[in-house]
Amino acid sequence: MANERVRSTSTRGERDEIIVDVVQALAEADRLELEEVEYTLYEYINPAVLTELADHDGGNWQFTFEIADHDVTITSDGRLFVDGVLCRTDLALCRSTTQPAHG
Q1: pLDDT digits over 24-71, tens only?
Q2: Cα dihedral sign for 81, 82, 84, 87?
Q3: Rounded to an integer, what is the distance from CA 26 to the centroid of its chain?
Q4: Using an 8 Å Cβ cutoff, are 50 and 61 in contact?
């Protein structure tokens, strides 16, 4: 089910870790083991959107979507919320290493 699909995509690289993080947070919100989740991200959202967000380098953003009676929010500073509850603060997102110039 969801676990099998997530594992197959997570081997593609670090940028797909965001998909695994979201599914794990949803499983925890439902008080389930990852293998017990009966839905997939694909039923609600194209997971490629999440990997594109993880690769996005620039500006502040927030992305919210609904999945299986949950509201999921991901922010540009690497935070993941499920139903308004902070679940992760360390999502693997691309971040600029350039520091602002001070004059």
Answers
A1: 999 999 999 989 999 889 999 999 998 888 887 778 889 999 999 999
A2: negative
A3: 10
A4: no
